[in-house]
Design brief:
251 residues, mainly beta, Jelly Rolls, 20 strands
Length: 251
């Protein structure tokens, strides 16, 4: 697994601490050192009791909270007396950074993004080994796979989401565009304006062109793609080309 940030990539070898020989700057994952990865985030829904009746009301939405991910690992370095101090500084530098955790296992490669919710701790074990723990809060609790791009064929984009959770696509328009409508079942996203090379983040309902907000979303119902195959109908300014970037999502 890897932990990526603005300051670099921390590559953790997999395996228990005692099975690893000392070497120059080895970072590793302890046995069973990944907590909160193989379980979904905790539910955020609750049932309110019905006065004067048995049971409770059904929640309006079945949602989950942020994912809390705990990583327990080790650092091994016999090359320098200051190696532990260098490792401590490297972990401390993560405290204000956005972190992307990527795990490659039998299910394939999946990633989450979050921040440290507690101080990173480095525990000396002996003269050349130290253990550490990182607790990440991931506001978006889903695990995401590799992004795929789906073009418009005719006036339809046929999207595949092989995950188990809804995912929010990025809509990209190449060329000059003054109007765009995408329809998925009873949901519709409609944009109007005047831009070249438009990008719409459907999770947050914001349209960009050249890195700044452009035009306006007239109908901005959230366009989420459920697991499986979903056709999306496209209507766009003549000459413009539309595609969707989609990351499959898992609970």
């Amino acid at each position: 697994m890897t932990i990526s940030s603005a300051s670099g990539v921390l590559d953790l070898v997999d395996g228990p601490l005692l099975n690893r020989a000392p070497g120059p700057g080895i970072w590793g994952l302890e046995k069973d050192g990944l907590e909160g990865w193989y379980e979904p985030a905790p539910p955020r829904a609750e049932s309110v009791l019905i006065p004067q009746m048995h049971g409770g009301y059904w929640p309006a939405h079945l949602l989950v909270g942020p994912r809390i991910l705990t990583i327990r690992g080790f650092h091994s370095d016999k090359t320098s007396a200051v190696a532990e101090a260098v490792a401590r500084d490297r972990l401390a530098a993560l405290i204000t950074q956005e972190l992307t955790v990527h795990v490659q296992d039998a299910s394939g490669g999946r990633s989450v993004t979050g921040f440290l919710g507690t101080q990173p701790i480095l525990r000396p074990i002996n003269a050349w080994r130290a253990g550490f723990s990182l607790v990440l809060t991931c506001p978006d609790p889903m695990k995401y796979g590799r992004e795929a791009v789906f073009p418009t064929i005719g006036n339809v984009i046929t999207v595949q989401n092989p995950g188990t959770a809804d995912t929010y696509p990025i809509i990209e328009v190449s060329g000059r565009v003054t109007n765009l409508t995408l329809t998925q079942g009873d949901r519709r996203v409609r944009w109007a304006g005047n831009a070249t090379d438009l990008r719409i983040d459907t999770r947050y309902g914001i349209a960009y062109s050249g890195g700044v907000e452009a035009g306006g979303l007239i109908d901005d119902a959230v366009l989420s793609l459920p697991p499986g195959t979903t056709p999306v109908t496209v209507s766009v300014t003549s000459g413009a080309r539309v595609q969707m970037r989609v990351r499959p999502a898992w609970h």
